[in-house]
Amino acid sequence: MGVLEGKVVVVTGSGQGIGAEIAKAAAREGAKVVVNDLGCGPGGEGADDGLAKRTADEIVAAGGQAVPNTDSVATWEGGKALVETAVREFGRIDGVVNNAGVLRDVLFHKMEEEQWNSVRNVNLDGAFYVSRAAAPYFREQQSGAYVHLTSSSGLIGNYGQVNYGAAKMGVAGMSKCIALDMKRFGVRSNAVAPWAYTRLIGQIKTDTEENRKRVEILKTLAADKIAPFVVALLSDGAKDVTGQIFGVRRNEIMLFSQPRPIRTVHAGEGWTPQGCIDRALPAFQGSMFPLEISSEVITWDPV
Questions:
Q1: CA-to-CA distance for 162 and 213, rounded, in angstroms?
Q2: C-beta separation of 107 from 160 below 8 A
Q3: Residue-range domain boundaries for the chain
Q4: Is the pLDDT of residue 44 over 60?
Q5: In this predicted model, what pLDDT tens digit does every residue of 286-297 receive, in sequence order?
Q6: In angstroms, how far is CA 221 from the centroid of its own chain?
Q7: DSSP-assigned letters across all residues of 133-167
Q8: Taking the complete model, does pTM exceed 0.90, yes or no?
Q9: Which residues contact 295 (CB under 8 A, 6 or more apart)?
Q10: SS3 of residue 171 by DSSP
């Protein structure tokens, strides 16, 4: 028996790439899987209902159970319809993997409203809509697991990704608050930052040396390396793990820190702007984080 035997799992954006590998791995571990993919391009353009069907067919051909779904996660109605597909087809829902994502990279001072909205709609709003749709079922059955894919672009930072970084940092914050709100119902929520070469990587601009190096490293990372840890988090074997932020890069699994106060200063008489300039900011200076991107923080080669 697999670690997900008898469970029903929804995986968004699972027509290809990381999502498809997660869906197939979940099925191999005994889960019944709803393969969701609108079939849009890396930037959110177009639609292709064949992607979800292809992954679902591969699962069935391998002896698993899966159905395709092409609802858009970027709407309240689409998120609800996706979860209802799981309940209608398989009778319940036990796990949600919020993997669907788009990229629209552009430097901040050139970013337009549509580039901001399209990325937020899928990466952050979509994760909320699907998670919220599953919540009543999780609450009623007193169990359930969310795994939300975040990104080092939000956790650490990267050039040209104000929209993506903001959305993915929002996903990490959303995951933590879901964990707090749903703990009483036996429901878990965790975030995972993946490093893998997928079609979205082709959207990363290589106009700087830093980004060129980042893309070259990403080209060495296989999408199927992400799936085992995501599947583990969905399983009962991780029943005590919630509210955490992880990273997976090839054969590495990382646990990320979370913001906590690292130094404080006080003034018994209160603060003035000049007092902050003269005393508070210099006191913090040695503990401030440098302005770095992901590749400057995680400097070692993938293993």
A1: 20
A2: yes
A3: 8-255
A4: no
A5: 999 999 998 899
A6: 17
A7: HHHHHHHHHT-EEEEEE--HHHHT--TTBHHHHHH
A8: yes
A9: 210, 213, 214, 217
A10: helix
